[in-house]
Amino acid sequence: WDGQWEVIDRTLRGLDSVVLLPTGAGKSIAFQLAALLLPGRCIAVDPILSLIDDQIDNLAAVGIDRCIGITSQLTTEERGLALQAFQSGHYLFCYVAPERFQTVPFREALRALTANTPISLIAIDEAHCVSEWGHDFRTAYLNLGRLTRDYCASHGVVPPLVALTGTASKIVLMDVQRELGITAFDAIISPKTFDRPELRYTILTSPSGEKVQRVLGFLERLPTDFGLDRSQFFRPRGRQTYAGLVFCPHVNGPYGVVEQAEHLKEALRTPVGVYSGEPPRNTDAEEWEKEKRRVARDFKRNRIAVLACTKAFGMGIDKPNIRYTVHIALPPSIESFYQEAGRAGRDRRRAECAIVLSNDDPRRSQRLLSPATPLDEVGRVVNETSWDDADDIVRALWFHVRAFRGERAEVEDIARMLDQLGDVQTRRQVNVTWGDPRWLSEGRWRDAGRERAEKALHRLVVLGVVKDYTVDFASQEFGVRIAGATQEEIAAAFGRYAAAYQQRLGEQAEREALALRREAHREYVLAVAERLVRFIYQHIELARRRALNEMLQAAIAGQTGDQLRRRILAYLEQSEWDERLEAVRASAVGGVDRLAPVLDDLVSPNDAAALRAATGRALASYPDVPGLLILRSVSEALSPDADPEEVRQNVEAALGFAFEKFRLDSTEVAAALGQAIARARDKAGAGELLLRSTLDSRHIDRVFVRALIQHVPRDLAGIPAWWLLNKLAERCEALLTTEEG
Predict the structure, then answer these.
(1) Are 521 and 165 in contact (CB under 8 A)?
(2) pLDDT beyond 70 at 136
(3) Res. 571: pLDDT tops 60
(4) How far apart are CA 731 and CA 729, in angstroms?
(5) Which of 125, 364, 681, 715 is buried most, with the most CB atoms less than 10 Å from its CB?
(6) For residues 614 and 632, what is the distance between their CA atoms, to the nearest angstrom?
(7) Are β-strands 477-482 and 466-472 bridged in parallel, bridged antiparallel, or unpaired?
(8) SS3 696
(9) Could you tell me the CA-to-CA distances from 604 to 284, 617, 630 in Å, in that order?
(10) What number is the average pLDDT over the span 166-193?
(11) Rounded to an integer, what distance in angstroms lies between the CA atom of residue 478 and that of residue 471?
C-alpha cells in the first residue's frame, strides 16, 4: 500500500519516521517486516490492551509466535517469568502499554536485554496519544521519546523510532514530532489520499428519545442492501460473517454499551458482545478484564457477529470482515469518526458507516460550541440541563467539562503534589503516594486519585521541575526524580511548551514567567504552573470544543454519503490553501495582515468549500487566531450550503480574540474585515451577512465602525453609516433624558 515501502526503507537505514497513513493501509506490517529484517528485538508501544492482543494474535496466525504482551492481564508471577524471558532475548516482539516504561522492573529488563541483544526498532502505535492537544492523550506518553531512546540503546546505538497514526491535526502532528524528537524534514510519511471508497457514509437524524429505534431501523435495512436473508445476516457464519460495530459514547446509562447491547440482542435475535475500557456498574474490574478479552477474541474469530463497544475497541483492530459501523452519538472529532468507522471494510469490500445524530436544540448547540462562549458558561448550561433534555452535544460536553475540571482545581492539585515532593530546588529522588486521602476526596471512579496526582506530576514535567518518574502500583507510589531546575530554566521550559503552539506566545510565556521570579522557589513554581494551566484551558480546551463543532457541521452538511465524504476528505487532506493559512497562523498580529493573498484566490464556490475545510482543520489546532476565524466566516458565507449562524459565531470570535487576546488596533482589524466583506460581496447576500454579523458584535465601538466604512464596498457603506447614526441618536436621547431628569 501507499507509504509502506517508505516506512521500511527509512527504518532499514536507521532513520526515525512519523507514519500518517489511513486506517487499513498496513502500518503495522510495515514496521513488523522491517523489524524482522533487522538484527535484534522489536519493542512496540500500544495504548489499549485489545490492540496488543490483536497484534499478537495476527503475528501468531502467520507463524510468528515468539511474541509477548507484558500487560496488566498477566498475574504478578506470569509477569515476572515474562520479563525473565524477555531480557534473555527470547521474544522477537514485545508489546507494552506506555505505562510499562514507567515501571522499574521493565526498565531493568531493558538494560539487561540491551547488554547483549540490540533493539531493532521502537514502534509507537496510535502516536496521536503522545499529544495533549489530541482527544486520546495519555500522560504516560510524556517523555516516551526520551525514555525509549535511553533504555533501548545498545552500546551507544539508538534504534530507529517509528511513530504510527491514522490521522492527526496539524498541532497534534507538530506535538508528536516535538515530544518524540523526530524533526527531520522528510520524516513524515503521508498518503496521496485518505479516501476509503469502499466505505459508504450515512447520517441519520433523530430526537434523542427515538435514537434506539433509528439505530435498529438502519440495521434492519442492511440485509436488503447487501442482498442477504435477514435470518443469516446478523448471525456468525465463520469467515462469511457480516460483522458490525455499534459505537456508544460511554459504558452505563441509556446510551451506554450495556443497555444498547440489550436492545440489539432483543431486536436482532442474536448474541451481542459488550466491550468497554472501564467495567460496567457493579462489575468487578478483574473479572471485566477477563470478560472483555474473551469478547474481543470471540468477535475476531467470528463467534459473535455484533459488538456494542466504546472507542476502547476503536483503535487499530484488524478484522477484515466488518461490514458496518454505527455511531449512536456524534463522535468528538472528524479524526475520531474516520478512525472508528475505518474499522470496517479492511478487506476493501463495501461497508456501511452511519452516525445517528441527535441535535435536539440547534440554537443551544451553536451557543455551547461557539468559540466566543467561555467554558464556565458551557459548564453551567450542561450541568443545568437534565439528562432527559440532553442531546448528543450536551452529552459530549458533559464529559468535556469534567475532563477540564477547572483551573483552580488543577492548580490546587499541583500545590498538593509540591507539598508531597518537598524541596524541588535540589536534584534528588523522592517517593510520593497517591494513596494519600487528599487525592481521593474527589475521586468517585477507579484510579481517580492516581489520575489526578499523575496529571499534577505531568504539569511539573512540562515545566522541567520533574525530570522523570516511575510508577509502583503495588505500593501506590510514584518514584520522582527532581530536576533541580532554576527559575530561569522553568521559565524557558514554559516558553518552549507554549511556542509549540505559536512562537509569539512562547516568547510571551517566557517573559511572563521571568517577571514572576521570587525568592520562595515553591511559590514561583506554583505561579508558573498556574499560568501553564491557564494556557491549556485557553487553547487546548477551546481546540477540542472546536473539533466537536467541525464534526457537527460536517454531519449537518452531509445530507448524502458523498457530501459527508467530501467534507471529511477536505478536512483531513492537505490542500492548496495550507501554506497560506500557515502564514496567517504564524503572523505576530493574529493573521489580519495576511488575508489578501488568500482572499484574492477565492474565486468560486468550490474554492470557498475547500477553504472552509482547510480553515476548519487549522482552527481545530489554533482556535483563537483572528485571521483564521475571519477566513472561516467568509468561506462559510460563500459556500453553497452556507450556515448564517456559523458566519456570525466566527466573526464574533474573531473580534473577541483580536481585541482581548491579541490587543490589536481597531483600524487593522477593520481593514481585514473590510477585505473579507468586499470578497464576500461576489455572492448575493454574503457580503451583507458578513457585515451585519460584524455590526452585531458586542466587541465593536464607534471608532471601529468609522474605520470599517473606509474599507467596505460603497454599495454596502450605508449599513455601517446607519449604525453610527443610530448610536448617535441613542446618545442624544440619553443626554435629553438626563437633562429632563
Answers:
(1) no
(2) no
(3) yes
(4) 5
(5) 125
(6) 9
(7) antiparallel
(8) coil
(9) 59, 20, 18
(10) 80
(11) 5
pTM equals 0.83
Angle of helix 626-638 versus helix 686-695 axis, rounded to 10: 140
Residues, the chain: 741
Rg (CA), the chain: 27
* Separation between Cα atoms, residue 226 and residue 359, nearest integer Å: 30
CB 524 within 8 A of CB 490: yes
The angle subtended at Cα 353 by Cα 349 and Cα 359, nearest 5°, is 170
Strand 199-205 versus strand 161-165 pairing type:
unpaired
In the prediction, which pLDDT does 505 show? 82
Q: For the sheet containing 67-69, what is the strand order? A: 67-69, 93-96, 41-45, 119-124, 161-165, 17-20, 188-189
CATH topology of domain 4-189: Rossmann fold (3.40.50)
Residue 461's closest CA among 16, 147, 150? 147
Distance from chain centroid for Cα 10? 27
Q: Give first-to-last CA distance, the chain, whole Å.
A: 81
Over residues 2-31, mean pLDDT: 86
Ramachandran sector of residue 276 (left: φ over 0; alpha: ψ -120 to 50; beta: rest): beta
- Section 426-451 average pLDDT: 78
Alpha carbon of 413 to those of 409, 457, 522, 542, 574: distances in Å? 6, 9, 14, 22, 40
**Average pLDDT in the chain:** 89
Distance CA 64, CA 470 (A): 32
Q: What is 199-358's CATH superfamily?
A: P-loop containing nucleotide triphosphate hydrolases (3.40.50.300)
Query: How many C-beta neighbours within 10 Å does residue 725 have?
Result: 10
**Quick one: CA dihedral 437, 439, 443, 446, positive or negative?**
negative
For 605-649, the pLDDT digits (tens) are: 888 988 998 999 889 888 889 999 999 999 999 998 899 999 999
Distances (CA, A) of 269 to 264, 303, 370, 677: 8, 15, 43, 58
Do the strands 161-165 and 188-189 form a parallel or antiparallel pair, or are they unpaired? unpaired
